[in-house]
Design brief:
5-stranded mixed sheet; 5-stranded antiparallel sheet; mainly beta; globular
């Protein structure tokens, strides 16, 4: 067990809820014995061309997808969603990149999104937003309606799979690259593309299932692409160093194992994860990740290269020297943590089943006591991100099949920094 700095490991206790309206349970709460849809070839290995295909999808597939953008958002859930996202705020509160997000000053930016998942900002301050089930990517400019700009081909949305994480190249001004993690017919894969051009698969062979697909991708301070994967409902994969599942991967922008990884030639940065959907770095370059528990404990972990975070041998705090203990745990009814973001000395955690935004103080790599904000106000929360102007953006996930859909869902809410 890694030594714990001041603050130690925190178990959060949330304020009582007014009643759990969930039809089932949070995104991660499935017995490992359940038989879930699972696919993806497991003879995956490092240094083989089979997991880095470098193949492109024909441009005609992209064009066909773009022509269908207006039709793929039809929904029969009775919510007020026309299939076109609608602008809400036409004037925005000022925000300071040196300020602290004001969680009492939220403004709805856009309504009518369909299960939004990934969110990444472009250099001009606009954002790209992925819709999990439609395969669309929309560009959101505050004060204007969201514009469909891309349709990722071969997305096979089912269960928790579909179009998931997005990342924008740190050199976007020069290379114009956007990255996407998505579920295809028989695996999860990562593609790279320029808007209006066909994508190239840069990493494949990640097993997929109806649950535990991971999907968060983000560029770190070192310019490498970090990838959170799930165990695809096959817990043993998390401890298998030859499998990309149940891991945090560290790749070059071209999809190769990054130099300096714990095992040369391997993309694995850390292992023993169940389902990672949140990645964020503090000002010192330390990586924090959100981890879905099974029945007992959701987690926030400080990620160290080459370390083992215990799943499926351990859920939550296990003690001992073999596995790294989490810094923060929650009861699974309080969290189901998906996206995470760091602004200043606060870690923000979007909770799905918990239907709240957790704020956690940061101090020298340690975490303080979490505080629940926005409880039961917006429903399920998927992604939280800090915009270039310091504002905090938050997406709901009520149209993902597990939420109570409200008029206007799904939405993006902006909290200016003051």
């Amino acid at each position: 067990m890694r030594g714990i700095p001041p603050f130690g490991t925190v178990s959060a206790t949330a304020a009582p809820r007014s009643g759990d309206r969930r039809r089932g349970y949070g995104e991660q709460h499935h017995s490992s014995s359940e038989q879930q849809r699972s696919y993806g070839e497991q003879r995956w290995g490092f240094g083989r061309s089979r997991w880095r295909t470098g193949t492109s999808v024909p441009l005609r597939v992209i064009a066909a997808g773009l022509l269908a953008l207006g039709a793929v958002t039809a929904c029969g859930d009775g919510a007020d969603r026309s299939g076109d996202s609608r602008v809400v705020a036409t004037s925005l509160a000022p925000s300071s990149s040196s300020g602290v997000p004001d969680l009492d000053a939220g403004q709805d930016l856009v309504h009518g999104l369909d299960a939004p998942w990934g969110l990444a900002f472009l250099p001009d301050g606009s954002a790209l937003v992925a819709e999990r089930d439609t395969g669309r990517i929309l560009r959101v400019v505050p004060g204007t309606a969201a514009e469909p700009v891309y349709a990722v081909p071969e997305v096979a949305a089912a269960g928790e799979g579909g179009l998931l994480g997005l990342a924008v190249s740190p050199n976007y001004a020069e290379d114009r690259y956007v990255y996407a993690y998505f579920t295809a017919a028989d695996e999860n894969r990562i593609v790279r593309f320029r808007l209006g051009e066909p994508p190239t698969v840069i990493f494949s062979g990640i097993a997929a299932a109806s649950i535990h697909d991971g999907g968060r991708i983000a560029f770190g301070p070192d310019g490498m692409l970090y990838v959170g994967t799930g165990d695809a409902s096959r817990p043993a994969l998390s401890q298998d160093p030859s499998s990309p599942n149940g891991k945090i991967l560290r790749l070059t922008p071209d999809g190769d194992p990054a130099p300096g990884n714990p095992t040369p030639g391997s993309p694995v940065y850390s292992l023993g994860h169940r389902n990672v959907q949140g990645l964020a770095w503090d000002s010192a370059g330390r990586l924090f990740a959100a981890e879905f528990g099974r029945n007992r404990a959701d987690e926030i972990n400080l990620i160290e290269p080459g370390r083992n975070y215990g799943w499926p041998e351990v859920e939550g705090v296990g003690g001992g020297d073999r596995f790294v203990d989490p810094l923060v745990t929650w009861d699974t009814s309080e969290a189901s943590p998906s996206g995470v973001a760091i602004a200043g000395d606060i870690l923000y955690v979007a909770a799905l089943r918990g239907e709240r935004l957790w704020t956690v103080p940061l101090r020298d790599g340690a975490l303080g006591t979490p505080t629940a904000r926005l409880a039961d106000r917006l429903g399920r929360l998927r992604t939280v991100a800090v915009a270039p102007d310091g504002a905090l953006w938050l997406t709901t996930s009520n149209t993902d099949g597990r939420g109570d859909v409200r008029a206007g869902d799904d939405r993006i809410v902006r909290f200016p920094a003051r």
